Amino acid sequence: MGKIKKKGTSGNAKNYITRSQAVRKLQIPLSDFRRLCIFKGIYPREPRSKKRASKSSTPSTTFYYTKDIQYLLHEPLLEKFRDQKALAKKISKALGRNEVSDAAKLERNLTPRIRLDHIIKERYPTFVDALRDMDDALSMLFLFANLPSTENVPPKAVAKCQRLTLEFEHYLIRTHSLRKSFLSIKGIYYQATIQGQDVLWLVPYRFVQRAGADIDFRIMATFVEFYTTLLSFVNFRLYTSIGLVYPPKLDAKSEESGAELSAFQLENQGETGKAEPAEILDTEMHSKAQAEADRLLSLPEAESNTAETGDVQQEALNTENESTAVNEPASTTLDQFTSLDPNADTLLQPSLTADVYTASQLFESFTVFLSRETPRHPLEFILRAFGCKRVGWDTSLGEPGAYCSEDDTRITHQIVDRPDISLPSPPLTDGGLDTDDEEGHVKARKTNERIPGRIYVQPQWVWDSVNAGQLQRADLYAPGATLPPHLSPWVKPKKGGYDPTVPLAEQETAAEAEADSDEDEIEADEALEEASDGEEIEGVRGDGEARELEDELIVDDGMEVELAASEDEDEDDVLDTVAGAGIDEWGGFSGDEAADVDESTREARAHQAELEAEALGQMPQSGKNDAKKQAREAAQSKRTKAEREALEDVERRKLMMPRRKRKMFEKMVYSNAKKDDEAERLRAKKRKIEKQGGKPKAV
């Protein structure tokens, strides 16, 4: 007889452990257990059978891997947690003896400092692993950077999150790593490419945040503590890879006045005046862009447009050639794929040259001014990340760091978010506007009036230009204009789905087009009937003419007899004609002759109906509508017949499939039909909006 196994020593009962058992095994409170699991990246697991995994009759809800808990037994943070618990007992005893000063000394001198450096190195062996886990970290830190300081959110944590996020944005600006951005209801999405890894995060809008009572800030604070350490490591590696000193210097006065990005001063590694190759290249590009912008502003408008298409491209090519000669930093290098077989096809090598070039040159030649009502920080960040070196804003609120004021004549684009701005009034003198020759500022101007020589656009123009990779038409984003749809750059239209950028006629099905034409005809007929009620239509006899016609038709009995005789003669003539046309002995027609007679009879009846309608003062019904309707019905019946045959063919093929594959196929058909219905609903909604004239068609 074999040895009887003891219950709970193998299988799921051994592989899983409940949360209460894990807390007793580690000998720490539940709050410290949660913190330790968050730091180490250990999360609850769901066993296949909770009944088998549980060692007691009471069903447990939270399980962990037994190996994970065994791994936590050797964590150095456990000693820190136990030291904190012992210190808390000493402080409570001191306070119980009314020794407040001793308790303060114990808290100040004996509080253990928890460092997470070793955990970062354990969880992320390589730098690429850390970049792949930056999405949640950046979203959490940007959220806390915009929160007001409360009892649950200390001001030190908010200040630290703000500093780390601004340092990360400075790196994106310097390396032009930002790729896409999208304005959503939740906030602003950003996507950057760092060393070949796409990083996506969400930044909330700067509204007044009201924290709910159901939010557990203790758990969120634990995540923030871990993510701040992670982002510090990442920022240090990113700054040193491009030859910058980390952490950058921070001007406290500028930060207090709201300078944000402008409060940081980036420095190069090494001695003063000796910059790294990447830094030299960036300085040269800045000086050349400034000289090119000044030259374009001095030229007339027509010459400047031609110069932008020729000279700027040549300058960009020269800059790209110079950049290839310089040693590229490690942040922009990608792996090169080599083929083992020399006779094999050449492998395509990854390259970031086109994206970096587009990002660094998109707004480089512009001088942009941000109005007071626009979101300054996101616009400044995106403009500078895509090459714009000259961004100005209103300094009336005490925000330093602006490149220029609103009256500066060097401004090429002004971003506003207000109703349509009126054009300036004609000058009082022949000399034009009264300007100061020395400074180039306008002396007298109304507050809500355009300045000649600059382009006014709404903020969406910046985001759409960035996502499209090229400058969009400024007239579509003028102040007061109806903006084009702002689409997500990460959602690509699929075949058969709804695409808002494509005209409706190119993506609707044949059935939808026919239904739309039927609705249009019905609406047109109803409109004509409403117009004909009580109104005399040009070319149609009205009520007065109809009464005159009735009076003419009233004749004496003798004339009626003559009319009857003439009708008999006409009937005899018709019979003779028909007899000559080939009527058989049974009085019928055969073949094409019968069809010709039916067509002539139909035309005669339609003509008679038109005459009767004119006599009654109504709108005559044209026979062309009937012909169109018949042709449409014939095409619809032909299409439905083809669809029915295709459906029958599919059903026959399904009979030959196994049951498992048939079920899978039915699920696929159901999901595709659901997507088609959703696309049809969106197209119908767009068709309705276009008919009502609420929005123009997408360009």
Account of the protein in words:
Residues 538-547, 599-610, 625-654, 673-682 have a biased composition (Basic and acidic residues). By secondary structure, this protein is of the alpha/beta class. The chain has helices at residues 12-15, 19-26, 30-40, 50-53, 66-72, 77-96, 100-109, 117-123, 127-132, 134-145, 155-175, 217-241, 252-256, 277-298, 301-325, 353-361, 376-385, 460-468, 504-507, 510-532, 543-553, 557-581, 592-616, 623-655, 659-692; strands spanning 16-18, 63-65, 178-183, 188-194, 197-203, 249-250, 264-265, 367-370, 390-393, 413-415, 455-457. 53% of the residues lie in helices and 6% in strands. The strands form four sheets. It has a four-stranded parallel β-sheet, covered by helices on one side. A three-stranded antiparallel β-sheet has the order 3-4-5. It has a two-stranded antiparallel ribbon with strand order 1-2. Helix 3 runs parallel beside helix 12, helix 11 (155-175) packs parallel to helix 17 and helix 14 packs antiparallel against helix 15 (301-325). The model is unreliable at 271-287, 300-332, 429-437, 534-543, 552-565 and 574-592 (pLDDT under 50).
> Strand content of the residues, in percent?
5-15%
The side-by-side strand order for the widest beta sheet comes to 9-8-10-11
**Count the strands?**
11
Q: Helical percent range?
A: 40-55%
Distance from first to last alpha carbon: 83 Å
- Mean pLDDT value: 76
Assembly state (oligomeric): single chain
SS summary, helix count: 25
The shape, in one word, is extended
Structural class: alpha/beta
Largest sheet: 4 strands, parallel
Unreliable stretches: 271-287, 300-332, 429-437, 534-543, 552-565, 574-592
Radius of gyration: 40 Å
